[in-house]
Design the sequence.
């Protein structure tokens, strides 16, 4: 992609997602991902109803009347985006390509965090860590992230979500609000890595999938290629048993994914590429806010 086309795509995503984050998501993001600690702010005179455990005895002794310590929420957070850049994310038969929708979702999350002055970092992964962008603040940093998402070319084509989750657990020392964006088409078992990552960080999972991932159309004999393995084979989509087996395999994989998320305590949303992702994101935020 040339520089002019890349700049145009970045600008288009910025306009759309920044508007969403300012008008819809900023308040929801703040409510869902509050600071997890408190810091000392000031002292003031004791008022009826104040907790006696907050009395500052040194100040009280100096002034001969009770004073209490006032604390405020430690607002600064770190947002980590774990973005699947494996070959299957280039697929887009119905709606936009998966990686295009993931870019918009990631940008919306990043701009929402910008409203709260949070740091944002990114882990690009396939079946290895392709690139790590350390957390930083600011619009310039977010635009850099969006450019990378749009134009990034991975070295490997496969998928191993455990690799990304383990890197998050080990590399990011401070507790972070984290999102995994993937189609979750992964032949490896990542349930343990998901559990461990959510123990240390606050993890959410967003599955972006194409309708053709879940069911085959009845269009006769097709020449199908696995984008990640490169394997090519003929599939007779006119066969009802073939279509049924395909849907059952998808359903089984979804069950396994949902079970892994449930056991790990991870909020999960599945978004099809021809659907609006706003409702799904709001659902995650609101579930987090009431915890």
Sequence:
């Amino acid at each position: 992609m040339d520089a002019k086309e890349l700049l145009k795509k970045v600008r288009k995503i910025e306009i759309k997602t920044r508007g969403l984050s300012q008008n819809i998501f900023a308040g929801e993001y703040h409510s869902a991902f509050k600071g997890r600690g408190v810091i000392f702010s000031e002292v003031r005179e004791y008022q009826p109803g104040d907790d006696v455990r907050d009395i500052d005895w040194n100040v009280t002794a100096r002034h001969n009347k009770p004073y209490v310590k006032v604390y405020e929420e430690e607002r600064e957070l770190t947002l980590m985006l774990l973005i699947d850049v494996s070959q299957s994310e280039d697929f887009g038969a119905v709606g936009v390509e998966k990686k295009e929708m993931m870019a918009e979702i990631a940008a919306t999350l990043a701009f929402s965090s910008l409203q709260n002055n949070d740091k944002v970092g990114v882990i690009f992964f396939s079946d290895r860590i392709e690139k790590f962008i350390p957390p930083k603040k600011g619009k310039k940093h977010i635009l850099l992230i969006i450019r990378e998402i749009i134009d990034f070319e991975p070295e490997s084509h496969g998928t191993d979500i455990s690799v990304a989750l383990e890197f998050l657990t080990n590399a990011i020392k401070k507790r972070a609000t984290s999102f995994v964006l993937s189609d979750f088409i992964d032949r490896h078992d990542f349930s343990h890595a998901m559990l461990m990552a959510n123990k240390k960080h606050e993890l959410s999972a967003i599955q972006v999938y194409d309708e053709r991932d879940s069911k085959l159309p009845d269009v006769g004999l097709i020449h199908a290629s696995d984008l990640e393995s490169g394997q090519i084979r003929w599939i007779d989509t006119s066969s009802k048993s073939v279509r049924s087996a395909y849907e059952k395999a998808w359903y089984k994989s979804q069950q396994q994914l949902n079970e892994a998320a449930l056991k790990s305590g991870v909020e999960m949303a599945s978004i099809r590429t021809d659907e609006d992702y706003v409702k799904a994101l709001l659902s995650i935020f609101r579930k987090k806010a009431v915890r």
The chain has a mean pLDDT of 84. The first strand starts at residue 37 and ends at 45. The beta strands are 37-45, 67-74, 78-84, 119-125, 129-136, 177-182, 202-209, 221-225, 232-236, 267-272.
